[in-house]
Amino acid sequence: MRLRFREDDVGYFIDDDRKPISETVRAGAPRSDPFCIFRQVPAYFVARAAMPLPVAPPLHSPQTMNDPIPLLGFTTNATELLAFILSVTMVFLNIRQSHWAWLFAIAASATYGFVYFDARLYGDTGLQIVFIVVSLWGWSKWLLADVKNVAFQPTWLSKKEWLYYLGGWAAAYSVLSLFLKYFTDTDVPFVDGFLTAGSLVGTVLLSRKKIENWIVWIVVDLLYIGLYVFKDLILTAILFAVFVVLAAIGLRAWSLSAKAANVAKEANVAKEAHVAKAATP
């Protein structure tokens, strides 16, 4: 008798009676062929030896920074969560006018570069590189004032400076939006371009300690909330909602600081004038 084997759910079967070999071995040889079992068992082990060994699954599946993480009813990832923490810390330090804010700004920009690239927000991705460069410049500017022990107080823009910055925003928007439309696959070139240009203006104003930077950030962050909800970056949208509140706090804190500095300056001028007048014979 010629035995042929094939694999099924429960084992290897002999084609003539469809019984698993394991059952045949346990039950014994069929009555018609009392020596059948001695021919079946070697053939079974030959067939098993010819089969490839199964590959064991890894003990731990590889984890990446982009793996989804459920959080408060929505999904985020480790990269976005880290950028969230760095950004909130940065804004708190900016409100306190601490130069360490620029270090967190650099780290947050580098982290958000990966988040935005994954979401196809290429304008914002490129902006993070500009942010890092401007942050290094702003950090050096703030540190230099600390080293020289020079008062570097928040100040307001003049009307002429306002026009310059608004014109720069419009020019940057035109260039960025056209570039994003024709040279990338982003689906929001004009919104991305407008907010990228506005963010750049806000960062430059912040580095110069101009109070209007907070006004720019309030406008930009409000619009960013809608964009990030559209892109399903819910944690980042929540972050920018927090930014709006923090920007309002920063606007008030810096305005009071500038007012106090002006009062102190006027008091010093009056004191010097009084001293000069008293010294005059």
Short description:
It is built from nine helices and four strands.
Characterize the largest beta sheet: strand count, sense, and whether it forms a barrel. 2 strands, antiparallel
Q: Which overall shape is indicated by the principal axes computed on the Cα atoms?
A: elongated
Q: What is the helical fraction, as a range of percent?
A: 55-70%
Major sheet strand order: 1-2
Q: Percent of residues in beta strands?
A: 5-15%
| Alpha-beta content class | mainly alpha
Query: How confident overall, as mean pLDDT?
Result: 76
Characterize the structure shown.
The chain is mainly α and 281 residues long. The protein has nine helices and four strands; from the N terminus they run E-E-H-H-E-E-H-H-H-H-H-H-H. It has helices at 21-27, 36-50, 78-95, 101-118, 122-147, 159-183, 189-207, 212-230, 234-279, and strands spanning 5-8, 11-14, 68-71, 74-77. A two-stranded antiparallel ribbon has the order 1-2. Strands 3-4 form a two-stranded antiparallel ribbon. Helix 7 runs antiparallel to helix 8. The longest helix has 46 residues, at 234-279. The relative contact order is 0.08.
